[in-house]
Backbone:
């Protein structure tokens, strides 16, 4: 038990090494199930080891809950979800950019919490909550995209509230928003393993807030600043400069060309981290 909550350099390196084998077996399974590309598998292995090294059980449990929740809903395969995914930047097979966009902020916040614990002999609850908030936002956003596409009816643009085509960036549905709260709450559960004296209800509610906030941030950026291209063959609005379905190039249509789906996801996890940081004071 001492090793799990120790913030010394020796304990952090030992935990990174201990995490390697279980993380590699989970990543290998995900790769075989085509939930990860080769680059995504390496990034996920690094992320998993870094999270156990810095955030011990609580951050690893949060990552696992996110992974299980996201993979389970990603396999729903309803026609609506498949249609929405073909319009989105990438499929349900995640590459290194997507892994970094979903997990990078959580690793950074976990590292700050570990550094604080090392220097101040006690991890700050706020940075612990920020790390969990980032993962709660990633999970909330993933579940709201998948379940919103599968179960949501009448998606509307988050800014104008006008009806939009299912799967459009910035489109929200009631089912999607509820799924965002649920995904965030699921990850928040891991907080009961974290050091400090916050109650389980605090963690679950905080996770739900971060999940909802992250998903809304994702939708707002998706509706306003995210880059969109129009396919030169079928004319569909898409999130990449190349439409795989048509094997054709697409022309810039709106938004900032450098703000891709990965950038928007990273910003959404940063919003979740900020919510976690602000909700827990000590
Ligand atoms: Zn096309």
Residues:
């Amino acid at each position: 038990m001492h090793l799990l909550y120790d913030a010394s350099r020796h304990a952090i390196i030992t935990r990174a090494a201990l995490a390697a084998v279980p993380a590699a077996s989970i990543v290998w399974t995900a790769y075989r199930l085509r939930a990860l590309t080769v680059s995504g598998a390496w990034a996920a292995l690094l992320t998993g080891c870094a999270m156990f090294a810095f955030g011990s059980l609580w951050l690893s449990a949060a990552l696992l809950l996110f992974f299980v929740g996201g993979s389970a809903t990603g396999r729903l395969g309803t026609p609506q979800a498949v249609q929405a995914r073909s319009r989105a930047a990438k499929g349900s097979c995640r590459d290194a950019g997507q892994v970094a966009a979903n997990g990078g902020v959580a690793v950074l916040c976990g590292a700050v919490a570990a550094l604080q614990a090392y220097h101040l002999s006690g991890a700050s609850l706020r940075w612990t909550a920020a790390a969990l908030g980032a993962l709660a936002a990633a999970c909330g956003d993933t579940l709201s995209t998948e379940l919103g596409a599968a179960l949501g009816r009448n998606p509307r643009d988050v800014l104008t509230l006008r009806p939009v085509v299912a799967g459009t960036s910035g489109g929200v549905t009631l089912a999607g928003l509820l799924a965002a709260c649920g995904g965030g709450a699921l990850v928040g559960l891991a907080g009961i393993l974290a050091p400090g004296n916050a109650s389980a209800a605090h963690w679950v509610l905080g996770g739900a807030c971060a999940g909802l906030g992250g998903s809304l941030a994702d939708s707002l950026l998706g509706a306003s600043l995210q880059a969109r291209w129009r396919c030169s063959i079928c004319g569909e609005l898409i999130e990449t400069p190349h439409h795989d379905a048509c094997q054709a190039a697409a022309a810039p249509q709106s938004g900032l060309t450098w703000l891709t789906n990965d950038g928007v996801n990273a910003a959404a996890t940063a919003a979740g981290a900020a919510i976690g940081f602000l909700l827990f004071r000590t």
In short: The chain has one domain: 2-279. Residues 117 and 123 are 4 Å apart (CA to CA). The chain is about 65% helix and 5% strand.
